[in-house]
Amino acid sequence: MAGSNPNAKPMDLTLKVWRQKDRNTPGQLVTYPVKGVSPDMSFLEMLDVLNEDLLLKGEEPVAFDHDCREGICGMCSLFINGRAHGPERGTTTCQLHMRHFNHGDTITIEPWRAAAFPVHKDLVVDRSALDRIQQAGGYISVNTGGVPDANEIPIPKTIADKAFDAATCIQCGACVAACKNASAMLFVSAKVSQLALLPQGKTERKTRVENMVAQMDIEGFGACTNTGACAAECPVGISLENINMLRREFIAAKATSENV
Amino acid sequence: MNWFTKTFSSTIGRKIVMSITGLFLCSFLVVHLLGNLQLFKDDGGAAFNIYSDFMAHNGIIRFMEIILVLGFLFHIYDAIVLTRRNKAARPIDYAEQRPQENSTWSSRNMGLLGTVILVFLIIHLWNFFVPARFGGLEGVVIEDVEYENLYLRVMESFNVWWYVAIYVISMVALAYHLIHGFQSAFQTLGLDHKKYTPFIQGFGYFFSVVVCLAFAAIPLYFFFFK
To answer: In terms of residue numbers, what domain contains A245?
Structure first.
């Protein structure tokens, strides 16, 4: 493997993995040994090794979400040893490497836990609740016509940066998973802030925040206690400032919008 | 539901109610503490008894008393509604959790701390507020005027070691409740700014520790020195 450390010794691990047949069958933690794990492997590659073993034994492989394996798509999840996306800060599970674990470790792997994220199978949860919140208002209306010039609407650099930071949310759901209340406030706030900060988002500004917060409540997410766990566990570093901006948007919209 | 009830039954709306009532209750703590500092006056309780008589009979105070009760009721009611909702939002808990890696203990245990404070409040009201307000105290004459001797009740109560212990433990719970709650209340109202938030957080910590230390000093003073 290119760039691998020749001194890195393979590790033997014990995994406790949540196994659940389907949405309606109760699940349980099942213990599996995994031998010869390279410290250069990503966490997902380590699970691939486990699944190859299981397939050879004729057992059902562990289902888990993954796609780009580059830390940008937001598909991978996993609650690893009591932390969303594992023990490292600012990283997705696919970018978590086995060098952060030691030979002989026992690793507990659970799915995101939230009423709004029902378990499909094993470690795969249904995160479409976040899509429905997005559909409730996380868009802008653009009239068709000629392509506008890129610099036609002046946007101060500081505002553009804040909007971009909010827009880096990859919708992975780690904020919900890490929050003791399974609250989706950090996710919703990133989406609301991103659009409220920019001129293009002003048209639907008030209705957007009202509808997105209403959908968030309908989906059964909890309320925000300002523990800060979400931002601490967010793989892309979405700031708590967004949650405060969401509240300002919400208060202003409720006080002044035409929606009665 | 109309827009108003929709707003205040949403999760953010309920937190706004928690925040405003919480800050209002903080302002009550200041008034309550300033009045009670008269207990440290070495005059056999004359100043304190005159003050408590004023508090029990003044019209404005009686009106504010109703607002205060409403403040407590809304704070407690929304806390219960939100806690139930938050529990329901995660029906199956994690087998392994390491929340200490991402948040403070007090921020995760506001409900527990609040419950300790509520139990304390009931004991406290039963012992002092109910007799002072509805009768049941001995009389005392100060400068030819008859007053109810609340000071005597304070002295008797705080000579019981377990009663003092309840007070001190409750003030520790209140301090932790406020250390998270004070600054959190500002965040809930969306009031954060690079310039002011560090001050609000620092002041909140200072406020929580000083107010609770001063309250806890009262029973300790009576137990050891009176």
So the answer is: 127-142+150-256
Residues of B in contact with A82 (CB under 8 A): 94, 96-99, 101
Domain encompassing residue B61: 9-87+107-225
Please give the ipTM for the structure prediction: 0.93
Instruction: Sort out which chain A residues have CB atoms less than 8 A from B110's CB and list them.
Output: 225
CA distance A200 to chain B (A): 23
Give CA A9 to chain center in angstroms: 32
Domain-located, residue B41 = yes
Q: Report the pLDDT value the prediction gives residue A1, as an integer from 0 to 100.
A: 45
Q: How confident is the model at residue A64 (pLDDT cuts 50, 70, 90)?
A: very high
Region A160-164 average pLDDT: 97
Which residues of chain B have a Cβ shorter than 8 Å from any chain A Cβ?
A: 2-3, 6-7, 10-16, 82, 85-86, 88-99, 101-104, 107-108, 110, 180, 184, 187-192
Instruction: Answer yes or no: do A154 and A108 share one domain.
Output: no
3-state secondary structure of B147: strand
Residue B1, Cβ neighbours under 10 Å: how many? 8
More confident residue, B54 or A146: B54
Q: Cβ A223–B103 below 8 Å, yes or no?
A: no
Whether A101 and A154 map to the same domain: the answer is: no
Residue A142 binned pLDDT confidence (cut-offs 50, 70, 90)? confident
Q: Which residue of B has its CA nearest to A184?
A: B89
Cβ count near A161 (within 10 Å): 12
Sheet holding A11-19, edge to edge: A28-37, A11-19, A106-110, A79-80, A83-84
